[in-house]
Amino acid sequence: MSALAVGLTVNGRARAVLVDGRTTLLEALRENLGLTGAKRGCNQGVCGACTVLLDGRPVRGCLTLAAACEGAEVTTVEGLAPAGALNPVQQAIVEAGAVQCGFCTPGIVMSATALLRERPGASLEEVRQGLSGNLCRCSGYRGIVEAVHRAAAGAKATGGKA
Amino acid sequence: MTGFRRPSTVAEAVGLLAADAEARALAGGATLVAMMNADLVAPSALVSLAGIAALRRTETLPDGSVRLGAMRRHAENAVMDLAPGPDVVRRAAARIANPVVRNMGTIGGSVAFADPGADYPAALVAAGAAVEIAGPSGDRAVAAEDFFVDWYTTALGPGEIVTGVVLPPGGAGARSAYDKLVRVSGDFAIVSVAAVARLERGAVAGLRVAVGGCGPRPVRVAEAERALLGGGLDGPAAAALGAAIAEAADPPDDVRGSAAYRRRVIPGLVARALAACAAPLEHAA
Fold this sequence. Notes:
The complex is a heterodimer.
Chain A: E1 4-10, E2 13-19, H1 25-32, E3 51-54, E4 57-60, E5 73-75, H2 88-96, H3 105-118, H4 124-130, H5 141-157
Parallel strand pairs in A: 1-5
Antiparallel strand pairs in A: 1-2, 3-4, 3-5
Helix pairs in contact in A: 2-5, 3-5
Chain B: E1 3-5, H1 10-19, E2 24-26, H2 32-37, E3 45-48, E4 58-60, E5 66-69, H3 74-77, H4 88-94, H5 99-102, H6 107-113, H7 120-127, E6 130-135, E7 138-143, H8 144-147, E8 148-150, E9 153-154, E10 161-167, E11 174-181, E12 191-200, E13 203-212, H9 222-226, H10 236-248, H11 259-278
Parallel strand pairs in B: 1-3, 2-3
Antiparallel strand pairs in B: 4-5, 5-10, 6-7, 6-10, 8-9, 11-12, 12-13
Helix pairs in contact in B: 4-7, 10-11
């Protein structure tokens, strides 16, 4: 039973969804809007696979209620670059081969993109801190951290336009 | 069908909660939504506090106390400008979970949930803070020490919400330290220690130490604190304080550590927090 109409902007496009009060933003994105980039891992806010940007801030899609997003601007991994293109974090991850099973990758990309917008030129330690809420169960952290650190060096050079 | 309401005033929120015993106040969602996802709770309606501007406000009161609105997020609290002493709350906020969760969770939500392994409870007790409450029968304030009652149980009554916390000034020569022993960065504490000391010409003029994660509520032993007055933050009285807190603690045996282990590490962590308070300001932990 869905009864609440919520209007929000997703990846730059005005959308409307019909949800229950307890429907999460993650469910609304995946089930109502067909945006399956954000993943449902633990559904407890621990793993970070569902990380999306809400009004520019990284949040857990699984802990955010869709009904609370009226008027909000949501960015998912699908909206970081035009179709067929990659943002600098995505590009760096591809170049470093920092993907194993790939389930955590969209959440990593969102956390890293938010980090580099706030701290272009982030140090290795800042990258580790910034990604500390994203679990990679393949344990491929070294490649991920190196890739994001490399993207940070590029972001610094271009003034943070990640 | 779960309802969703977004009141714009505290009075409206309290009215909605008082009218429906199965409705729940929603702050940042970091805990409540996780519990709903796990089917541990099924509120009839959610009363979002996000639209209440008064709950985001921070102000300095005439007596120098700082009032933090309940809806301030951990990420904001982790970088706020607080004087030495009350800044123990900033130190605690910076150790909560990870950057993304700190963007969501709020001090009011965390305090109202009262997880004994969370970071704020011990810090608020050490700071001598008060918790401000609004409810159907009016507003009141409760000392943090009395607010945390039992496991996940607070002084909040039906229909009441936390509206803010008030941190008294630390005074001249105040110092604070916050540390927690964790398995991985950002986890709930195995043991946490919050300490606020006031030093006058090197001697202890005031001290509050609270330990978290080691019982239903933060553990504090005021008599043992008093034994340090007039002396330094080390020596036999300091060691006795750590031992007294370990003795008073009622730690859980769980996946993070056994009760015996927790008791074993408390004195060392207390000594470390006291040493951090004694260190020159720029080196305080």
